[in-house]
Amino acid sequence: MTAAKLLLPAKTPAAVPVLCIAAPNWAQTARALGPVEAMAAEAQGFKAQSGRFLLLIGKDGKPSRVLFGLGESKASNDVFLPGKLSRLLPRGAYRLEGDVADHRLAALGWLLEAYVFARYKKPQGEAAALLCPQNEDRDHIIMQAEAVWLARDLINTPACDMGPGDLEQAARDLAARHKAKMRTIIGKPLDAGFPMIAMVGRAAAEERRARLLDMRWGKAGDPKVTLIGKGVCFDTGGLDIKPSAGMLLMKKDMGGAANVLALADMIMTARLPIRLRILVPAVDNAISAEAFRPGDIVTSRKGLSVEIGNTDAEGRLILADALALADEEEPDLLIDLATLTGAARVALGPDLPPFYTDDEEMAEALLRHAGEENDPLWRLPLWASYDRLLESKFADVNNASDSGFAGSIVAALFVKRFVERARIHIHLDIFGWTPVARPGRPFGGEAQGIRALFALIRKRYGSHPPRR
Ligand code: BES
Ligand code: MN
Ligand code: ZN
């Protein structure tokens, strides 16, 4: 199913109206319904409870109207809530009316809810279609949904079918679709130029060799925006092996890469006037006699020596070499996304990824866009004194702190050391997964932060503002 088939042009005739009703408005709304409709609602105990719906049938035996409850309190009301209907209603075309808080986001929520991961299991039934709300940009909503679907597909695909080579193929497919240029650094050049990416990926099977994907798109003179995504196709923890509960979800450890490719898809579809670069270090953090060890010391691309305190802190190592490369051409904006720490989830839970930046203006703007897009993010500090937690006796820096404190901040401080010349750097520590389904957010792989980031990039660079 394509998003375009689920979000019909606003003028499509004969759509069944879906009347959204906040519970406090129910009595008043019920009086305005026809007597038969009001009795049907009464008989079935419909009182506009949150998420309840009622399909009313007309004299001709066809659906005449849907009642949809939004519940009591505004606070508990997700703007994606009406989207729940896309998988509940029978096939057909519907339009939303009534107490809809935000028609644009409700339509987006509809499409995001309609997603199913169908690669290994036949989906049950087809999603219902929605009329694009009046005066909303249909192409834009479709583009966002398709990007989110792409990220989810990549994350949900198990590691057996989403190795470094498969991730490379996904990037190549995207590049081909948008006529972007792409090269893959692998083998000797990777060993020589990106010692930490090569080291982390060293224990992987031959057909799952480590690589760095480097995609470019756009005009040379435009503002340089570079996106980096953590592409750990499976994270066993390495020799510091994870317990089974901690390893179970680790196919999602390429969630940063999936999100970055999805964000790039939006940027290129919208043809934003930027010079875009996407870097994805793609590896397996595997276990073999070749594996890197606790206590090993490696000299990174940037020249900093790094002691391995923990082989399970592999994401920051591969990001660091990619960040160092990105930094060399002094991008205007450098963004990295990574499923970097369990600590981020402990601090903020799975729905609210933290981000880090030194740029106050960007931080404020990103928070605003996150709110406007219903794509929540929360700023955490690059608390400089915690740098001491990364001290190493024998190297410039350790990759992990043994304190166990402030894990997400410490990881952010680690990656920050490899960025010096980029004008602005934003780091996101995402979870990339929805553990319990909510409206517009089905169980499984999830896009996080990319709709907010797209809005930020479009606002800032979308019309060629002067370079800073
Ligand atoms: N991929 C994990 C982080 C992760 C774990 C994200 C669970 C989301 C859910 C990362 O590579 C990792 O293992 N981090 C360690 C770092 C520690 C060894 C310093 C962690 O968070 O425990
Ligand atoms: Mn790890
Ligand atoms: Zn990891």
Report on the structure:
The protein has 468 residues and is of the alpha/beta class. The protein is 32% helix and 21% strand. Strand 12 (297-299) and strand 13 form a beta hairpin. It contains 15 helices and 20 strands. It is elongated. Bound molecules: ligand BES, manganese (II) ion and zinc ion (ZN). Residues 235, 253, 310, 312-315, 339-343, 345, 400, 407, 431 line the site of ligand BES.
List strands and helices in order, with pairings.
Layout lengths: L2 H4 E2 L7 E7 L3 H7 L2 H9 L9 E5 L5 E9 L21 E6 L4 H12 L14 E3 L6 H19 L7 H14 L3 E6 L1 H6 L1 H6 L10 E7 L6 E6 L1 E5 L8 H4 L7 H15 L5 E11 L11 E3 L5 E3 L7 H14 L4 E6 L3 H7 L5 E3 L3 H13 L5 E2 L17 E2 L8 H10 L7 E6 L3 E2 L9 E2 L4 H12 L7
Parallel strand pairs: 1-6, 2-4, 2-5, 5-6, 9-11, 9-14, 10-11, 13-17, 14-18, 15-16
Antiparallel strand pairs: 3-4, 7-8, 8-11, 12-13, 15-18, 19-20
This protein binds ligand BES, manganese (II) ion and zinc ion.
Question: How is this structure best summarized?
Answer:
By secondary structure, the protein is an alpha/beta fold. It has 15 helices and 20 strands.
Features:
single chain, 468 residues, nine-stranded mixed sheet, binds ligand BES, binds zinc ion
- Oligomeric state of the chains in view: single chain
Largest sheet: 9 strands, mixed
How helix-rich are the residues, as a percent range? Answer: 25-40%
Rg result: 24 Å
Silhouette = elongated
Uncertain stretches: none
Strand content: 15-25%
Q: Total number of helical segments?
A: 15
* Bound ligands, each once: ligand BES, manganese (II) ion, zinc ion
Number of strands: 20
Calculate the terminal CA-CA distance, rounded to whole Å: 43 Å
